[in-house]
Amino acid sequence: MSYAHPEALVSTSWLAEHLDDPSIRIVEVDVDTTSYDQGHAPGAVGWNWNTQLCDTTVRDVIPKAKLEELLGQSGIDNNTTIVIYGDNNNWFAAWAFWQLKLYGHADVRIVNGGRNKWIEEGRELTTEKPSVPRKTYRAREGDWGIRAYLPQVQAHVAVGDASLVDVRSPQEFSGEILSPPGLPETCQRGGHIPGALSIPWGKACNEDGTFKSREDLEALYQGAGVTPDRRVIAYCRIGERSSHSWFVLKYLLGYPDVKNYDGSWTEWGNLVGAPVEKGASQPVKV
Amino acid sequence: MKAEDYQERRESHAGWTMNIVSYRLGDRFHSTVDDADPGARLSRGEGATRDEAEGQALKKARRMLERTRRHPLP
Hints:
Helices cover 30% and strands 14% of the residues of chain A.
């Protein structure tokens, strides 16, 4: 069985065959923002997630005008096919994908396996930054229904009418640690949102970083009680890992109502008086 | 240019599993160290040899992992 939206995913071999395709723009978005300069797929432009894909004044996604400028200077117009890849199994590639969908870009694709697979396969790399012709980009209204805000999450927690999926590690979920090991603690309290299910993002991936099959993904989520008949809200610490799981649920499994709560634990775990649960979840099968 | 001599292995430190990748680009070796779970990037290193690149990345990664606080659960 193929994915619900197979057009949203391309393989590394597909990318290798389309490096010179003028209808696409390749974009690399990494957790480690120095990786692009070390070597990237020929023709790829690099986007920095913590300066270019956000509002650097208030905590928010990229503002509309800034997105239009970024895409225009990247040689992207509204008809361009944007092909994104990155390190850490596409964490921030998925973050970019989600933001592009917020602003209604029609054709965005993720490279299955991301940067690591491209490198591991010994594919062509360059340190040369491409010279791309500036284009004019006009962001659309887009689909802001794929974003969950704090009041919505609080309302769902009160009523229990949505599946909350915590995609962080089990230790972050339990409250044993407040951030991924080695990274700065960005919250005052550890634990998880009451009622959330623990389904770490990495369970959706194979060893080589590619996504698991649709059958395996269905078994993972439905086995944990996350079904397509309910609204699903994914969250992590700052919203990028949950973009990855949001992509899986929305585009690979075709769940109709999936939101990314990008405020995530950094928001919830710093709220005064917010309810917090601690401890492990029930083990997830698969 | 292509990545050559790609190697990947796992190693534990301070109770955390690290995923260590190294490869050669041109005449330089590059190494990255991630948490095996949840997969966050910890550090990277570069050098004339694989040992030098990995050593640089591992030194920083170990220091970062040692700083991770474990909070007691009720």
